[in-house]
Amino acid sequence: MTFFAMLFPGQGAQYIGMLSSFLYKNNNIFKYTFDEASHYIRFNLLKLIEEGPHKKLNQSKYAQVAILTSSVSIYRLWHNKNGRPPSLMSGHSLGEYSALVCSDSIKFSDALKIVFLRGILMQKITINRPSLMQAIINIDQKIVKKACFMASSKKVVSLASVNSYNQSVISGDKSAVYKVSEYCKKLGARHVFNLNINIPAHSKLMQPIAEKLKNILKVITIKKPKIPIINNVDVKIEKSSNKIKNALIKQMYSTVRWKEIIDLIQLKQIFTMIEIGPNKILTNLNKKNKKIISLSTNNLKNFLITFQTINKGINE
């Protein structure tokens, strides 16, 4: 039997036309799940991902709900087809909510409410305060972290995520982000690019939002996940409601330790990882690691290939 992990993407995975191959086949699971989401946010989410406009889909309050709903739809299809459950789950930032829903730790309806409000609150930070998130390629994270510290005297810039051995993400005030990336270029960074995210996620600017999220989570029921989930903040598997909630609150302004999560999964002798979402961002991050078998479910063809591969058993 093949042991595998499911990985859930965060904001930035959205694009117009995502899931079109699933929807073309009149997949009722997807339509039902998107109808459920549209009901809670009072907006036609399915029409938005099919037709746009692009600018609206990229707004955090819609992008985050769209990615959550996409991931849950794909997982529901997997479950409906009697696919094997994973040994572990983990979600990148927002993806942690997808993992919690799919492990029966939190109701989908509750996750929708949290994520929609989370997106609105995060978007408000950018009003009259230009912000940016950039990925920096091929430079040590310690250098990036030091550069963020040096540039944070008057403006805010933080190490938002360590995605792999050669990719870090910085986030914060636009001018400070540019200052750090220029410094890193001088020290040998091979490439710098803007992320498809219009908020300063996982920066110190998010601390006031974390307090508001704390109040929202007080009235939400979170149970012990049926499938273990490695969280972003501590790279730990938490079981209690309070510890899971605290990790979600801290996640808002803390570094996503994605590389360490992938390392921990491998340490547990799991080398097959499936991305459950509308894109291949996490799959591509794993591609250079020859030990990992990376599979995606971003379209119907890839979903069926992945489903057959896992449920036949790679090592059988």
Write a brief structural summary:
With 316 residues, this protein is α/β, with parallel strands linked by helices.
Oligomer: single chain
One letter per element, helices H and strands E, the order comes to EHHHHHEHHEHEEHEHEHHEHEH
Strand order of the largest sheet: 7-2-1-8-9
| CATH class assignment of the largest domain | Alpha Beta
Rg, please? 19 Å
- Give the CATH H-level superfamily of the largest domain: Malonyl-Coenzyme A Acyl Carrier Protein, domain 2
The chain-level structural class is alpha/beta
Poorly predicted tracts of residues: none
Record the SSE blueprint.
Blueprint: E1 4-8, H1 20-24, H2 28-41, H3 45-51, H4 54-57, H5 60-80, E2 88-91, H6 95-102, H7 108-124, E3 131-137, H8 141-150, E4 157-164, E5 167-173, H9 174-186, E6 191-194, H10 207-217, E7 229-230, H11 241-251, H12 258-267, E8 272-275, H13 281-286, E9 293-296, H14 300-312
Parallel strand pairs: 1-2, 1-8, 2-7, 8-9
Antiparallel strand pairs: 3-5, 3-6, 4-5
Helix pairs in contact: 2-5, 2-7, 5-6, 5-7, 7-10, 8-9, 10-11
Describe the 3D structure.
The model has no long low-confidence stretch (mean pLDDT 95). The protein folds into two domains: 4-125 and 205-312, 3-Layer(aba) Sandwich (Malonyl-Coenzyme A Acyl Carrier Protein, domain 2), CATH 3.40.366.10; 131-197, Alpha-Beta Plaits. The protein has helices at residues 20-24, 28-41, 45-51, 54-57, 60-80, 95-102, 108-124, 141-150, 174-186, 207-217, 241-251, 258-267, 281-286, 300-312; strands at residues 4-8, 88-91, 131-137, 157-164, 167-173, 191-194, 229-230, 272-275, 293-296. A hairpin with a 2-residue loop joins β4 and β5. It has 14 helices and nine strands.
